[in-house]
Amino acid sequence: MSNSNVLLSIKDLHASVEEKNILKGLNLEIKPGEVHAIMGPNGAGKSTTGYVLSGRDGYEVNSGSVTLDGEDLLEMDVEERARAGLFLAFQYPVEIPGVSNLEFLKASVDAQREARGQEALTSAEFLKLAKEACKQVNLPVSFLKRGVNEGFSGGEKKRNEIMQMILLQPKVCILDETDSGLDIDAMQVVAEGVNSQRSPERSFIVVTHYQRLLDYIKPDFVHVLADGKIVKSGDASLAKELEEQGYAWLQTEPREDELED
Amino acid sequence: MSEWLQGAIARGQQVQDGFSDQRAASLALLQEIKWPNRKTEAWRYTPLRAVERSSAQIKELSPELEPVSIADLQFLELVFVDGVLVSLPEELPDGLVIEMQESSLFGTIKPERHIFGLVNDVLAADVAVVRVAAGAVIEQPLRISNLMSEGAEGHIRVLVDVAQNAKVTVYEHAESQSGSLTTAYTEFRIGADATLEHYRFALQSGNQVSIGGSHFCLLERAQLNSTIIGFGSDLQRLDTDIIHRGEKADAKLNAIYLLDGQELFDLHANVEHEVPNCTTEENVRGIAADRSRAVFNGRIHIHRDAQKTLAELNNRNLLMSDKAEINTKPELEIYADDVRCAHGATVAEIDKKALYYLRSRGLTKGQAQVMLNFGFINELIDQMPNPTLAEWVRPIIRERFAQMEVK
C-alpha cells in the first residue's frame, strides 16, 4: 500500500499505562474518507488507543510509530496533535465549572484556524457558527453560556463532543464509545451529527462495544481489538457476526486469528 | 547575632537627623534582639540565608532609574533610587504636602516586633512624610516607587497621614534589579471618616531580597481598600498590619501571589480589632509552581472590648507542581464574645484531567492553565477600585501565569 494515500498510519504500536502493557502491537492504516470501527471486549485497549493517539499524560508509548498525514504524531504535544487535525470525542467528557463553553469553543476554533493559517473569527461570526452547530446536535443555544459540560446529562455531554467536532473540522475523528449511556433517540442525533461530517477527506475511528451504533454510522471496515492488538478485520458484516457470537470465541482461538491479521 | 545585623547596627550608629530619638530607641531594641532562625515562629518557613549571604552594598553613586510608565495613568511621583529620595512631584494639588522632617508618626503604627522594621527605623536614609489635609480629596493617585539598582542596598520609609474626611490613593511600586537588598516600610494613619485606596505591587522576580511592610491605623469610620500583588524572589517578605483604633472603621485587603522557580513569598497579615463595630475582609489567593514556596500567616486579634466585630479571612491556594509548597497558617485570637469571625484556608492542585481535555482541543498548555485557574485570581483584580491600574496589571499577571509550568 502506498503511504501517500494513508491519512493515519499506526505501526506495531506498544503502549503501557502505569507499567502495565495495554497495546501490544497495534497496526492500522486509514485512508481519507474511511470509517473504521474498532470493537472488542472490555479491557482490550479500545479507550487506551484514543488516549495514546491524543497524547494523554501517563500513556507511555514503548515502541512503534504513528503518522498523521505523513507527520510523526508521537513527537507532537497534545495540542499540536489537535492542531494537526486529530480529534478525540471522549467517552467521559470532563466537566469544567467556571469556564464558559463558548469561551472554550472560541479558543479551540481560534487555535485550529491559526494552525491552518486562517484569520481568527470575530465573536459575532463565531457565535453564528456555534449556534448552527448547536442546532445540528439538538442542543439548546443556552448551553453555550454554561460551564464546559457542567451539569450536562450523559447525552448532552456526548452531543457537546460532536458539536466540537463539527466546529473544529478535524481530519481524523476518534469516537470513544460515543454510544455508551445513550438511548436510541440520543444515539440517532449523535449519529446524524457524525454522518453529516463524513467527507472524502475526513476519516473516522468509531470505538464501540456494541454493534448498534454501527447501524447508524456505517463503517467501511470493522476491526476486533483483543489484548492490545487487532485480531480480526472485515467489513460491516463482521459487526453483525460479533453481535450474534459475542467475544467469547476470542479466548478459544486467539492464535488462528492472529495469523489472519 | 548575624554579621549582617551587626553591620546594620554599626551603620545605624552613624545616622544623625531629626528622627534621631526614635532611631536610637530602635537601635537599642535591635541590640537586644535575637536574629531569627528556624525556631522563630514569624520566620519559621522563611530562612534568612539570602540576607546573610547578600553582597548588596550601599552605593555612593546610583544610576538614574525611572519607574515604568503606565499608559493613561498620571501619578504624583515619589521616587526612591537605592534608598535615596530622588524625585518629588513638581506641583502638588491643594491639600497635599510632602516633607522630609521629623514626624511623630514615625514608628508609631508599625509594630515593634518586626525586626527588619527596626532595621529600617535605623537605616532608612530619607524619610518622606505625606500629609493629606482634612477634607482634601486628592484625585490623582500618588505613586511611591522603590527602585533598586543591581547589587544595591537601600532602605526606604514613608509616613502617610490622611487627615479626617480626606481621600487619597497611594500605590507602592517596587522594581528591584538582581542582587539588590531593600527594606521598605510605610505607615499610614487614616483619620476619622477618611478613605485610603492602597496598592502595593512587586512584579519582578529573581535573586533580589525585599523585605517590607505596610501598616495601617484606622480611626473612626475610616476606610481602607488595599490590593497587594507579589511575584516571589530569593526572599520576598511583606508584613501588613491593620489596626482598628476607631469604631466603625472598615478594612478590605486583597492579596495575590504568583510564584515560580525557586521563589519565596511570605505574607504576614495581622489585624488588630481594638475597638467595637469594625469590619475586616481579607482575601488572599496564590498560585505556586515548580519549587516555589508561599508562606501566609493570617492573624486576627479581636480585643476584649471589640464587640460586634465582623472579620473574615480567606486564603486559597493552587499548587502547580508536586514540589511547590504552601505554608498557610490561620491564627484567630478572640477575646470578645459578640463577634462574627470567619477564617478559611484551602490548598488545591491543578486539575490535570481538565488541562488535558482543553489541550486535546488545540489550546496550548498556557492558554488552558489561564482558562482553568486564572479566574480565581482575576476575581480579585476585578475588585480593584482603579480600573486603569487593573487593566494594566491584568495582562502582566496573565502572562506570568501562562509561563508557570504544571509538573
From TrEMBL, chain A:
**GO-annotated molecular function:** ATP binding; ATP hydrolysis activity
InterPro entries (alphabetical): AAA+_ATPase, ABC_transporter-like_ATP-bd, FeS-cluster_ATPase_SufC, P-loop_NTPase
List the keywords (alphabetical).
ATP-binding, Nucleotide-binding
Residue span, ABC transporter domain: 8-252
Task: Give yes or no: UniProt keyword Electron transport.
Answer: no
PANTHER family to which the protein is assigned, alphabetical: ABC TRANSPORTER I FAMILY MEMBER 6, CHLOROPLASTIC
The uppermost taxa in this organism's lineage are: Bacteria, Pseudomonadati, Pseudomonadota, Gammaproteobacteria, Oceanospirillales
In terms of domain of life, where is this protein from?
A: Bacteria
Q: What name has this protein been given in UniProt?
A: Fe-S cluster assembly ATPase SufC
Automatic annotation (TrEMBL), chain B:
Domain SUF system FeS cluster assembly SufBD core residues, every copy: 155-376
An individual GO BP term: iron-sulfur cluster assembly
Q: Which domain of life is it from?
A: Bacteria
The record's InterPro entries line, in alphabetical order, gives: Fe-S_cluster_assembly_SufBD (IPR055346), SUF_FeS_clus_asmbl_SufBD_core (IPR000825), SUF_FeS_clus_asmbl_SufBD_sf (IPR037284), SUF_FeS_clus_asmbl_SufD (IPR011542)
Q: Which Pfam families match?
A: SUFBD_core
The record's NCBIfam families line, in alphabetical order, gives:
sufD
Q: What is the designated name of this protein? A: Fe-S cluster assembly protein SufD
